[in-house]
Every structure is written in C-alpha cells, then in structure tokens.
Amino acid sequence: MSSHISDGETEYIWRYHKHEMRENQCSSVLSKQIKAPLHVVWSLVRRFDQPQKYKPFVQSCTIQGDNTVGSIREVSVKSGLPATTSTERLEILDDEQHIFSVKILGGDHRLKNYWSKITLHPEVIDGRSGTMVLESYVVDIPEGNTKDETRYFIEALIKCNLKSLADVSEKLAFQYHTEFLDR
Ligand code: A8S
Asked: What is the span of the domain harbouring residue 156?
C-alpha cells in the first residue's frame, strides 16, 4: 500500500475492502491516484467484457451474458505468463457507488479462489478532478509457495494494471478536454 494513505482512504478501505479470509489465504490492498475524472476511469473499469481496454496482459476476452452481475468471461492472456486462460464471473457492478468485483472460477493458472474488488473515489488533484482507485484481492496461497511470494506476484500484476488504467484514463481525459476546447 502506498505510504500517503489519508484518514479518508483508511475509512474506504475498511468499508469496502474487508475480506473474509481463511487460514491458507492472503490478501492486500493497492491504491493509485489518477489525474482523470471519475466517470472516465469508471467507463474503463466497468466494462467487464473488455478488460483488454487497459489490462496490458490480456490478449482477448469473450463474454457469456450481457455485462450484468453473474455474467462470465473467458480471458486469454498474452504469451510469456504462467497461464493462458482464466474464467471469471462478475460479482458486483455498482454504478452509483463505483464498486466492481470479479471472482475467478477457473483457468490454467494457480490462482484459486481469487476474488477482487475495485472501488473509485473522487479526489481533487492539483485543482482538477481526479480519482483514487483502490484494488484489493483475496486468494488461496498455492501449494509450494509462501504468503510473501503470492503477494509479490499478484501485487506486481495489479500494479501494472493500475499504471495502465491511469495512462489510458489520462489520455482519454486529455482527448475529451481538447475536443471540448476545439468546438
Ligand atoms: C487481474 C488480476 C490478476 C490477473 C492474473 C492477478 C492473470 O490474468 C495473469 C496471470 C496469471 O498467472 C493468472 O485483475 C491470471 O487481472 C495476468 C491468468 C488470472
């Protein structure tokens, strides 16, 4: 977790990112500040059918369902990773409170019972509307691995996803802004 966690953030974490955890599981919470309005970031996060819009490791995605809770997606990841596919179900899509949650059901990878949650929170950054993203997960510690190794692996992937979410959102926000000025 980043070191500049404010009291407000701590409250959000407790409210939205409290996971029930079993003995053989681990979890953590990561945060990312994005210099783009919340609606721009949310437009990317909420698209359960298109994780490739910002996740750098996703090759393609096919969905069964209509992007509502209970829909299932089959994600193909790029080569070079210790997996090729992942089957995932949409658990929460809250357009009012900006909560998005996905559970991994299966796939040829080692993340069993992976459950993730993303929440967005409006924030003013340098006098402009920005967004604080919090992402948390809980997962089984794979046999033969330690808690620290599991955390390190997953946090590395989530950090890449959040960095890319920030880049894509900031680019989109800039485009909207210049289109508006050009009119
Ligand atoms: C996400 C988070 C994770 C995705 C992991 C942790 C994954 O897609 C990748 C490699 C794996 O070994 C597991 O929200 C899996 O994307 C990139 C295929 C699930």
From this structure: 7-182
